[in-house]
Design goal:
single chain; 64 residues; 0% strand
C-alpha cells in the first residue's frame, strides 16, 4: 500500500507543473485563434523614413 501511495503522491505533485507547462505552451495558440486578421488588417509599426542621422553618428564614432 505504501508503494501505491508513494506513486500517487509523486503524480499528484507533478500534475500542477505539467498543467502549468501545458497552459504556457498552448496559450499562444489559443490567442491566435481569436485574432481577426485579414488583408485589410496589418499588425506593424508605422515607421518614418530615416533622415540619415544614424549614419552620421556611426561615422563620427569610428573617427573618435
Amino acid at each position: 500500500m505504501t508503494r501505491r501511495t508513494a506513486l500517487f503522491s509523486g503524480i499528484a505533485s507533478a500534475l500542477p507543473r505539467f498543467a502549468l507547462l501545458a497552459a504556457a505552451l498552448l496559450a499562444p495558440l489559443v490567442a491566435m485563434q481569436s485574432v481577426q486578421a485579414g488583408a485589410d488588417a496589418f499588425i506593424e509599426d508605422s515607421r518614418k523614413l530615416s533622415s540619415g542621422a544614424g549614419l552620421v553618428l556611426v561615422i563620427s564614432l569610428q573617427r573618435g
